[in-house]
Amino acid sequence: MPNPLSLLPAALAVAALALTSCGGDDGSTAVDAGSDVSTTSCDYPSDGQPAAKQVDPPSSTAPDTGDVDVTISTSVGDLKATLGRDTTPCTVNSFLSLADQGYFDDTPCHRLTTAGIFVLQCGDPTGVGNGGPGYSFADELDGTETYPTGTLAMANAGPDTNGSQFFIVYADSSLPASYTVFGHVDDAAVKTVEDVAKKGVVGGQGDGAPKEAVTISSVSAD
User: Fold this and answer.
1) In a domain, 3, yes or no
2) Of 75, 118, 139, 196, which has the fewest beta carbons less than 10 angstroms from its beta carbon?
3) Phi, psi at residue 4, to the nearest 5°?
């Protein structure tokens, strides 16, 4: 049964989305070992695939407390989000590293679902749904994850295959606890995505490219 949130193209998708621990060497979010910031170790091994856009892997040391507010600037307006380091430090570390390196710049949100589940999926510079940063990282899940309106979560192609793709839930969606929830977007962002969803999907189906193109111009910490 196709997984509506897989990193694979919709016609080939198989269930999955995830997160857990992380690690790399040269990412832009490195933490000074002498600082008082609480940290955890992460692992970001190569996934054996070429990067959709060239970036360095994140730092293998990630802050593991506190929230980070970010702005996802898009062609349909700014989407404000809050990322949670307490429960998903390695995911947040990767997301911020990619943002700092401009990985998301000029990247389309390639997938919208309007039936069964209600999400906008982004984060693949190729715009076809199978691109990533050239590394992967583990799930950060506790098995109780739910996906209410406003959820920000990672997409993947199976357990522990997180990369760069993520999705925004614009209406309560019933999904297995397989997708790492690393933050949430605010009410204004939900409304913006809802407005895109009301215009439908290319081809008139319930799963595909949004009729109103959504392109990320940048992602930045506030």
Assistant:
1) no
2) 75
3) -65, -10
Within a domain: residue 79?
yes
Quote the CA–CA distance of 193 and 177 in Å, as a whole number.
Answer: 23
Backbone angles phi, psi at 220, to 5 degrees: -140, 145
CA distances from 178 to 17, 81, 100, 198 (A): 5, 21, 27, 27
Q: What percentage of the chain's residues is helix, strand, coil (to nearest 5)?
A: 10, 30, 60
The model's pTM? 0.87
Taking residues 175-197, report their average pLDDT: 98
Strands 151-154 and 61-63, by their bridges, are unpaired
**Distance of CA 1 to CAs 10, 12, 43, Å?**
11, 10, 31
Residue 2 falls inside a structural domain? no
Rg (CA), the chain: 16
Helix (H/G/I), strand (E/B), else coil: 33: coil
In the block, residue with structure tokens 């943002």? 99
Mean pLDDT of 81-100: 98
Average predicted confidence (pLDDT) for the chain: 88
The amino acid present at 207, given as its one-letter code, is D
Whether 1 maps to a domain, the answer reads: no
Q: Which residue type sits at 175?
A: L
Host H or E run for residue 207: strand 207-208
